[in-house]
Amino acid sequence: RNTWPTPAQCPAFYGNDEATIRANVVNVQIPWLMNGKTHVIPIHKKAADSLTRVVNFIWETCGKSQDQIHKFGYDIFDGSFVPRNIAGTGTRSYHWYAAAIDWDAARNPQHATAANTEFKEESLITTAFKREGWTWGGNWSPQYRDAMHFEAGDQ
Fold it and tell me: Long-range pairs for 140-147 at CB < 8 Å and ≥24 separation?
């Protein structure tokens, strides 16, 4: 299990400026088709091996079936590296550090209750990321809940 940085530790761990972070972004090969074309996710190199283990575990558990991946919504990639702050704050998002991924945003809208999202505590994607120590936004308080969001960070 990985130990990931808190928000305050991110600049020292991932880099403090956009150029440094961009220089450390790598593409992780995804074994299934995403968004009808994409087979890679850009992520900070410090999270790349962990993400590779997550997606390989999901792929194996789904029987290497694109249909199963699609059924679960794991083929809908909605972003990773986006240099921005957390909405309404001056705090950098884990997306800013290339250390967060959003999946299937349409079926897992931000601020939705657990009853109104596809990803649950027991979902394969959630358990796969948690095995690697990633934080799941679905565990956040109701005003911040974000079931689409997984980050290589310690909230």
Answer: 142/111, 142/113, 143/111, 144/111, 145/110, 145/111, 145/112, 145/113, 145/114, 146/108, 146/110, 146/111, 147/108, 147/112, 147/114, 147/117, 147/118, 147/119, 147/120
